[in-house]
Amino acid sequence: xxxxxxxxxxxATGKKSIFVESIGMFGNFSGSDKEIIILPDGRIDLFxxxxxxxxFEVILMGLESGPKHRVITAGMYAYAVSFTPxxxxxxxxxxxxxxxxxxxxxxxxxxxxxxxxxxNIEIFQGxxxxxxxxxxxxxxxxxxxxxxxxxxxxxxxxxxxxxxxxVGWSSRQINxxxxxxxxxxxxxxxxxxxxxxxxxxxxxxxxxxELDFTDQSHFIKKIKKYAGALPKELSRxxxxxxxxxxxLKGG
Length: 251
Known about the structure:
The protein is an alpha+beta fold.
């Protein structure tokens, strides 16, 4: 990715990783606006977006179910915490069921954030980790924890019926939980994770299915559904438009 567009995220570790995927920042430090395409990845992002001098707008993003075009204006930057669904439920204690492909503003004083918490990425990460330590619950529903462990370890490839059997939770109840929390059924969430995993292969120039897709045409159809582009176009990633893909390439 261009050095003018900075993207710096650190993965959560230990118990925090159950609730948070990563903490970091991104920004357009070039002299011109940058058009990007955001791709679905199954994360719930909390953005602290630079607004006026010394102040930040707090935005909670709903899940994305398709590609979304955005323009990052010159000089714009934001800090971010990317939550898992369990983090949404247990840390933020919110639902995004009514926010599919949209967002919601949170209070400016969320988590008692102050200007000094945004001096640099290290200070921001330190403060967020401190807040997470305060908010992480002692116990969570073990069925839910096991469910997400299976979903992530299988990269979304395990079917609803198999997940239900392994967790001991009916598929009807699981879907009710997903719809109430995220606004999508379990099958859709798993499809998004499969798409995200497929991007890892596309980023390496592998344009044929390596996950459990029926055939090449099915693979292309799913890529087009969630990216709005064919695998070959994604792989080229002209002008680093597909931000998630650029990150996976390590550029």
